[in-house]
Design goal:
This protein has 309 residues and is mainly α. It has 19 helices and two strands. Helix content is 70%, strand content 1%. Helix 13 packs antiparallel against helix 14.
């Protein structure tokens, strides 16, 4: 075959004809990214304007860094930034290893029926709305009528302020988040474990390795690249925090602990229709998140691990 025939347009795009169904399926996710990720980037300009809803982006007055200066000067912004980083760090420390442990435990299960039931029960919380989870949290952890405190009081003890005391609220917040996300996080690790060569386990068993040794020397090294990549992505999300979870579980008694950037934006920017200030905070979050994920990626490359780029 000549080089001319290899480079001909017919051969160049032969893969499109062969896998056209797969490329057709890409249209929806690509459209979603264009519509909801790239086109809204025009709104970043609002952060540098005194935005007027009726004049629009191109008709509003430019004010430079005035919105950033105003937001950074607020005392509540410093508190919300500290709480965001603190809660996300606790989520990372407490929640990141749990899906790995669960995936290994599910893989080691011999009963297929028990494994399927366990997976279903672990995945279910991820599909529950935080409004529903918030109601469950109140029923379980409420100071007076919660199931746990009712049981403690009947046994002669004193109630525990899970939702009304700062440190207790933080512990409750983290544990509920780990419970809600741990099952969903196991999916990637289960897929990574199934790709490990079975012959490695057989060779380790022949060499006399017990189950824990096989997990330590075969399973964990086999999914190490997946662990590193997900860790990098999680570090990059340290500045982002959902609105539902802290807003629904939080209350005025623990305002100093539950006020995060997302609730701060809602209170300061959205309630007062100060969209320019909200855009400034959002841009600040994105820049810091980019710096974090780039730094984490650089460190993993320096220590010889697989990185995102």
């Amino acid at each position: 075959m000549t080089s001319a025939s290899v480079r001909s347009p017919k051969n160049r795009f032969a893969f499109l004809k062969k896998d056209w169904r797969l490329y057709l399926m890409l249209i929806l996710p690509l459209a979603q990214y264009v519509l909801f990720r790239y086109l809204p980037m025009e709104g970043v300009l609002i952060a540098f304007q005194k935005y007027n809803l009726f004049k629009g982006i191109w008709g509003s007055k430019w004010v430079g860094l005035e919105n950033f200066n105003f937001v950074f000067s607020l005392k509540d912004f410093t508190l919300s930034l500290k709480n965001t980083l603190f809660l996300n760090l606790l989520d990372l420390i407490a929640g990141f290893p749990v899906p790995i442990i669960l995936a290994i435990m599910l893989t080691e299960m011999r009963s297929l029926k028990l494994k399927r039931v366990s997976q279903t029960l672990l995945y279910l919380p991820h599909f529950l709305s935080w409004v529903i989870i918030g109601g469950m949290v109140l029923e379980i952890f409420a100071p007076t009528y919660g199931i746990i405190n009712k049981t403690i009081i009947r046994m002669g003890g004193s109630n525990i302020p899970f939702l009304s005391d700062g440190p207790h609220w933080v512990a409750t917040y983290v544990l509920v988040g780990v419970w809600q996300n741990m099952g969903w996080g196991t999916i990637l690790y289960l897929a990574a474990i199934t790709n490990i060569n079975v012959e490695l386990y057989e060779a380790a068993e022949i060499d006399g390795a017990n189950k824990m040794q096989r997990i330590w020397h075969v399973t964990l090294p086999g999914i190490r690249s997946t662990i590193v990549i997900l860790l990098i992505l999680n570090v990059g999300q340290m500045m982002n925090i959902g609105f539902d979870r802290p807003f629904i579980i939080g209350n005025t008694l623990v305002q100093q602990y539950c006020d995060v950037i997302s609730t701060f934006v809602y209170r300061v920017a959205m309630k007062g229709a100060k969209y320019d200030r909200g855009a400034a905070i959002g841009l600040f979050q994105s820049v810091i998140g980019f710096i974090l994920i780039t730094t984490a990626n650089f460190i993993t490359r320096r220590i010889g691990e697989e990185s995102i780029w």
